[in-house]
Write a structure and sequence with these properties.
Elements: E1 3-7, E2 25-27, E3 30-36, H1 39-47, E4 53-57, H2 58-64, E5 68-78, E6 85-89, E7 99-103, H3 108-120, E8 127-131, E9 143-147, H4 148-157, E10 164-167, H5 168-176, E11 181-188, H6 193-212, H7 215-224, H8 228-236, E12 238-241, H9 244-257
Parallel strand pairs: 1-3, 7-8, 7-9
Antiparallel strand pairs: 2-3, 4-11, 5-11, 5-12, 6-9, 6-10
Helix pairs in contact: 3-5, 7-8
Amino acid sequence: MSIRVGYIPYLNMVPFHQNFGPGPTEIDGRYTEFCTLSPRAMGLEAEKGLLDAGAMSLVDWFRLSSRYEPLGHFGIGVKRSAQSVTLFSRVAMRYLEGTIAVSDETSTSFRLLQTILENRYKQSSIRYGRIASSTLFDGSADGLLLIGDEALRAKKEGIKGLPVVTDLGDEWYQWQKCPFVFARWVVRQGLHQSTKDALETTLEASLRHMETDPTVAQREGEKRRLPAGDVAAYWSGFVYRLTPEHQRSIQQFEELASYSHV
């Protein structure tokens, strides 16, 4: 039987995929294939029982935690700013009204946005609409939430009519005084323990490779047309082995998010 692993093709996920995807490989003697998915799509695939492991969006893991367990202490945490989870808006968050267009790729970032607006700024009348890509944004909304590489590009190029740029990781840090966690690596509970152990070992080896090989940032920069220094600086803002402070943040977010609209 093969293993199916979710693969998110964002720049911030590259450290987990050194000699581990997106091409097929072998883990614990079993054929391992990678399914390229957005964070939101990964949650939907996992809900159908079609994935064995992946860096699952935090809010999707909250609802699927009876079927998926944490894989080691690996995840997508930040030190403070998220850098690529960005709200573009006409006015500052605290004054927002009307409608916000939301990237169809996000699960956790969308809930984080709602949680901040409703619980920190007491804005509960805002309407939301999904949008497949920023290229389809027609300018009619008062805000636009983008994540991942698309958010990085939009920060560089700007979004016409939406001059205020807000980093949601930084918003959370200012509010809760702890760094946010956007995803954590999880594994299907029914998977054999030796396979879980092998996946954990593979992720650790991947991170160590990225940390000791300076050519990784160079290669990714060439692939994405970014200076290697910018890639390395971007990665330096993330924490891939979650700390007790990140665990506290997960608990705080789960509690606060439960009071926000789905």
